[in-house]
Write a structure and sequence with these properties.
The structure holds two protein chains of two kinds. By secondary structure, chain A is of the alpha+beta class. Chain A has ten helices and nine strands. In chain A, a hairpin with a 5-residue loop joins strand 4 and strand 5. By secondary structure, chain B is an alpha/beta fold. In chain B, the strands form four sheets. Chain B has a seven-stranded parallel β-sheet with strand order 9-13-8-1-6-7-14, sandwiched between helices. In chain B, strands 10-11-12 form a three-stranded antiparallel β-sheet. Classes of the chains: A alpha+beta, B alpha/beta.
Chain lengths: 395, 258
């Protein structure tokens, strides 16, 4: 029986199909050969390895769960999760780029777009020839997107075919500056949230890069500024109305993060194991000390529990039985354990833990973003709180 | 163009080999199995040759147990079209009998060219491809580093490294066997759609016992053992003069090398 090529203490390989395992092994191979050799340089220089995007597209990494008729791979959600795990084992920036393109740009076009929009955009985005971004969060509306200030008003209120005028500012937008198309969410005059495909070069649309990040340095993060941007009706996502639509996209991306964060945790755990076996202090490897062993044992236990959680989420998602609070639990728990694992791995590496000769400090800084974006840890906690008690704490 | 690839499943090169307690063979329980890395170059070159020829078929041919299907599927996911597996369950094979069953299995296929790795990284015998060529009465080039299809599409032009960094360029009339070395082409990744398609590509199954038709191995294995463990070294400490004197004394009296 084929085996996963990663930490697999409870042999979850046995619960996977041959194709799922093959996807994991291929993605790991890609990460080893394409991402890891270049990622430290990109992190130091704070640049996105844009040249990897068409390569990822050619291999089917972008929008991988969408159907083959639009140029996508048609993977199931477990195989997709394993792909996210391996990309994030490389770097959260690469997983984020793939998550945004697939879950937040291609998915809304696929789920809420017209047939023309799907035919035009999905193959281009799947191949990595075009880059997309997703604009929901605003400077003053993060956890509470329903309060957004971005507005879309009809150019000619008497015509159903009239174009739209968009105004507003979005913030914390992955790939914004390099995107060819932005899925922008704005309220119409009736106060309903609508989605628009805002294209690069449209008059009044700009996407300045946000500088000074200590996390996700190999990823472009931007503002989107919309000043009287004219968007034709054919660029509105016809089937998206209300906050449900962007939240539906977030469920896709959050699910991917439940797996991706495991990849980050595994990278840190594996680095810590390796280090603790080779670092000699007091004439023996530091892995021979009880304090180190306790740390490693707890890391492995948390990763293993996280794997089982992610796997069952994937099976539920494939069976179309998954609920948003279940996804919240996956995102919340697996980011939290990855954050803990990265910190403890940093401790085990001692002073070497702060150098980028080892991957740990890079992952430790990255997880701070992942812990916070796509619904903060606290918001997911409150979503679960509401699920348990029936009382929404945040309303 | 009809192209065959001889593919062997071998332990991953990082595997720590363990011997069965009775010394009768290798303990396979913890081994991670992969496509023999040189055979992977063969798959890559086969897929490139198919493209250069403007189409055709790449068939993966493997003698191995059921677990070898995993590696064959990987080649199918890279883009090969179908597979033939000769089931070796319960049969003990050496290079000669492996060549016998491979050559018989492909007799009716009428391949125009066969690819193989220059050697398998498990037993390093470097014999099966050459013996298969002999059985088929085909030419064989070992090792092949760069392969181009001839203008007539009935020959290949092959670059072959020889001693001293010199390259030999040979033209081989097809059919023939090319034993691939690491060349300029890294084996491609299987794409995700490729992986999804691989499960529906056919793998025909033959029985080694049927193909052997009474042929028996020329080699028998009498026992397996690991190389003796290296003894721990000795570290001399102290003032340089004293350490040097001690070192010379040990080299003369203990190691007896001076």
């Amino acid at each position: 029986m084929p085996q996963l090529n990663c930490t697999d203490f409870l042999n979850i390989s046995e619960l996977l199909s041959e194709e799922e395992i093959e996807v994991q092994r291929m993605a790991r191979d890609f990460t080893e050969k394409e991402i890891l050799p270049i990622i430290t340089k990109h992190t130091r220089e704070s640049t996105f390895p844009k040249e990897l995007f068409p390569k990822m597209g050619a291999l089917g990494f972008l929008g991988a769960t969408l159907p083959q008729e639009y140029g996508c791979a048609g993977l199931n959600n477990v195989a997709y999760g394993l792909l996210m795990q391996e990309l994030e084992r490389g770097d959260s920036s690469m997983r984020s780029a793939a998550s945004v393109q697939g879950g937040l740009v291609m998915y809304p076009i696929y789920a809420y777009g017209s047939e023309e929009q799907k035919k035009k955009w999905l193959p281009l985005l799947a191949s990595g020839k075009k880059i997309g971004c997703f604009g929901l969060t605003e400077p003053d509306f993060g956890s509470n997107p329903a309060g957004m200030l971005s507005r879309a008003k009809k150019k000619n209120s008497h015509s159903t075919n009239s174009g739209w005028i968009l105004n507003g500012t979005k913030m914390w937008i992955t790939n914004g500056t390099i995107a060819d198309v932005a899925v922008v969410w704005a309220k119409n005059e009736a106060g309903k949230i609508n989605g628009f495909l805002v294209e690069k070069g449209m008059k009044g649309f700009s996407a300045p890069e946000m500088k000074g990040k200590f996390s996700l340095r190999a990823s472009v993060t931007s503002e989107l500024v919309l000043e009287e941007v004219e968007v034709p009706e054919e660029n509105r996502l016809p089937k998206a109305e209300g906050l449900k639509a962007p939240l539906g996209c977030l469920s896709q991306a959050r699910y991917g993060i439940a797996w991706g964060s495991l990849g980050l945790a595994m990278a840190c755990y594996e680095a810590a194991v390796e280090y603790s076996k080779t670092r000699i202090q007091f004439d023996k490897p530091i892995g021979g000390f009880q304090l180190t062993q306790k740390k490693l044992a707890e890391m492995l236990t948390e990763i293993t529990k996280g794997q089982l959680l992610a796997l069952q989420l994937g099976r539920l998602k494939d069976a179309k039985k998954i609920t948003p609070p279940q996804i919240s639990m996956g995102k919340m728990n697996n980011c939290a354990i990855a954050r803990k694992v990265s910190h403890v791995a940093r401790e085990i590496l001692g002073a070497n833990g702060i150098l980028d000769d080892y991957p740990v400090i890079r992952h430790m800084m990255n997880i701070e973003s992942v812990y916070t974006y796509e619904g903060t840890h606290d918001i997911h906690t409150l979503i679960l709180g509401e699920e348990i008690t029936g009382i929404a704490a945040y309303k | 163009m009809k192209i065959g690839v001889l593919l062997k499943q071998t332990p991953d090169t990082e595997t720590k080999i363990k011997i069965k307690p009775d010394g009768s063979g290798i303990d396979e329980s913890d081994i991670k199995w992969v496509i023999n890395p040189y055979d992977e170059y063969g798959v890559e070159e086969a897929l490139r040759l198919k493209d250069a020829a403007g189409g055709g078929e790449v068939v993966v041919v493997t003698a191995g147990s059921k677990r070898a299907v995993d590696s064959m599927r990987q080649a199918l996911a890279m883009g090969a079209d179908r597979g033939i597996r000769i089931d070796t369950e319960g049969v003990s094979l050496d290079s000669y009998t492996t060549a016998v069953i491979l050559s018989k299995a492909i007799q009716s296929e009428n391949f125009e060219v066969l690819f193989a790795g220059k050697q398998a990284v498990d037993d390093d015998c470097v014999q099966v491809a050459q013996m298969t060529a002999t059985a088929l009465d085909w030419p064989c080039i070992w090792p092949a580093e760069h392969i181009e299809l001839g203008a007539d599409k009935k020959s290949v032009v092959v670059t072959r490294p020889v001693a001293g960094g010199i390259k030999e360029i040979m033209e081989m009339t097809l059919p023939g066997i090319l034993c691939c070395d690491k060349g300029e082409h890294e084996p491609r990744y299987a794409s995700l759609p490729g992986i999804m398609k691989a499960k529906s590509k056919p793998i025909a199954e033959l029985k080694a016992a049927d193909l052997l038709a009474g042929e028996t191995p020329k080699v028998t294995w009498s026992g397996f053992r690991l190389p003796p463990e290296r003894k721990a070294g000795k570290i001399l400490k102290g003032e340089p003069e004293a350490v040097c004197a001690e070192l010379v004394k040990l080299l003369r009296e203990e190691a007896k090398v001076i």
